Amino acid sequence: MPSATTTTSPLAGRTPARAPRTPSPGLFLTLLAVCSAVTAANIYLAAPLLSLMARDFGSTPSALAWIASVAQLGYAVGLLFFAPLGDSVNRRRLVAGLTLVTALALAASALAPGAGILAVAVFVASAATVVPQLLVPLVAERAPAERRARHVAAVIAGLFTGIVGARVLGGLAGQAFGWRWVFAGAAVLTLALGLATAFVLPSRRSREGSLFSGLAALPSVLRSSPELWRACVRQAGMFGAWSALWTSLAVLLTGPAYGLSTATAGLFGLFGLTASAVAPLAGGLVDRFGAGRVVRSAYLVAAVSVPLFRLGGHTLGALFAAAVAIHAALVASHVANQTLALTSTSTPATANTAYVVAGFAGGAAASALAGAAYGHFGWDGVCAVAGLWLLLGWGVSAVRR
Under a CB-based contact definition with an 8 Å cutoff, are residues 393 and 229 in contact? Predict the structure, then answer.
């Protein structure tokens, strides 16, 4: 029985606010991986639907190809402005808010009367669809140190599965139901999974500081962490090599060398599933042997894939082997480098933003150079760009200690 001197709390007698129940670690991780898959798919929905959109708008697929680029631009803007907020605001509210914006923008895309409004809606949806890059730092924070890379790899596997699913299943669903229903279905899935994920996320108070202090801190975070800088440069080199080869592959397959149809060439996107299978294995290797050894091995595999891709210019079997090798190298490098980036500073969301933007910039630059190289030197020029990017990524990061 309390004494007369006991201070009675002003909240005594009130029912405390019920915190959301946190599911078991396995279920929690699965939910985050599925949410990442569905959310990441939104960035790539437009690409396989361009011909259907063109028919609806009375245009040509080539005239609407810029809409797919708008989605990439929106994602880059979202990474810069929204991903660093994971360090400074309540992550549960941030995920819920971005989910609502994404779902509304996808619904607007489904109802768009013309290409202009569709482009604006796609841009907004892509900018708000950075939820996976908010979830990865959370997973790294909550995971046991000895299993951190494996937990990060699970979310990365979901992300890659969503990218492949958007390219392959998006086109098939569009043919069956129409492109507008694909966007509408994506809106429903995004809303359901995003809000379910936000509900189970741990809540925390916002840190002091300006809303975009994480964005302003990016340069200083990079300068103060050599490990983060090295991870950024190496992933920029790896992602650049992959992007140079993968963005030019459709031109090779549908050109005189093979003469495949666009639909058949698109099935090469299924090799992206290699990433989903390799990610858990890569996570286990990082936890056991360290990120550095896994990145070195990934670069060796990627280096072997470049001459295989060159041979694949006229030998389909070599192209199959090269596609598997480059995807395995990309995801193994990604798991290792991102785990390193997330654990190298006290601001994981800001560090993750620097890492993802660096990889995105490396990929965009290599893709642009590969397009010009293909026009002047053919497929050999593309392979040369990929080899150069691998050399730069490893060489520049190895020089600075």
Answer: no
Put simply, whether the predicted model's pTM sits higher than 0.85 gets the answer no
Nearest to 363 by CA among 11, 32, 43, 94: 43
Enumerate residues 6+ apart whose C-beta is below 8 A from 377: 384
Q: What is the pLDDT of residue 6?
A: 39
Residue of 153, 141, 147 lying closest to 204 (CA atoms)? 141
Q: Tell me, what's the pLDDT at 160?
A: 78
SS3 (DSSP) at 289: helix
For the record, the structure tokens of 342 come out as 């997330």
Q: Which two tokens stand for residue 226?
A: 């050599």
Nearest Cα to Cα of residue 281 among 332, 238, 334:
332
Q: In 189-212, which positions are buried (b, 16+ CB within 10 angstroms) versus exposed (e)? A: bbbebbeebbeebeeeeeeeeeee
Q: What is the pLDDT of residue 136?
A: 80
Distance separating alpha carbons of residues 151 and 280, to the nearest angstrom = 8
Q: Give residue 277's pLDDT.
A: 78
The closest of 221, 233, 240 to 401, measured between CA atoms, is: 233
Question: Residue 205: its pLDDT value, please?
Answer: 53
Best CA proximity match to 340, nearest among 287, 390, 298: 287
DSSP string, 270-282: GGGHHHHHHHHHH
Low-confidence ranges of the chain (pLDDT < 50): 1-19, 209
Report pLDDT digits (tens) over 295-315: 999 999 999 999 999 999 989
Nearest to 83, CA basis, from 131, 153, 140? 131
Amino acid at 146: E
Whether 175 and 383 have beta carbons less than 8 Å apart is answered as no
- Rounded to whole angstroms, the maximal C-alpha distance in the chain is 92
- Give residue 187's pLDDT: 93
Torsion of CA 338, 343, 345, 346, to 10 degrees: 120
What's the rounded Cα separation, in Å, for the pair 99 and 138? 17
**Residue-wise DSSP of 19-62:** PPPP--HHHHHHHHHHHHHHHHHGGGSSGGGHHHHHHHHTS-HH
Angstrom CA distances, 277 to 44, 160, 161, 281, stand at 21, 10, 10, 8
Structure tokens at 86: 């994971």
Q: Extract the tokens encoding 331.
A: 């995801």
φ, ψ (nearest 5 deg) of residue 11: -95, 0
Task: Tell me how crowded residue 372 is: count the other CB atoms within 10 A of its CB.
Answer: 12
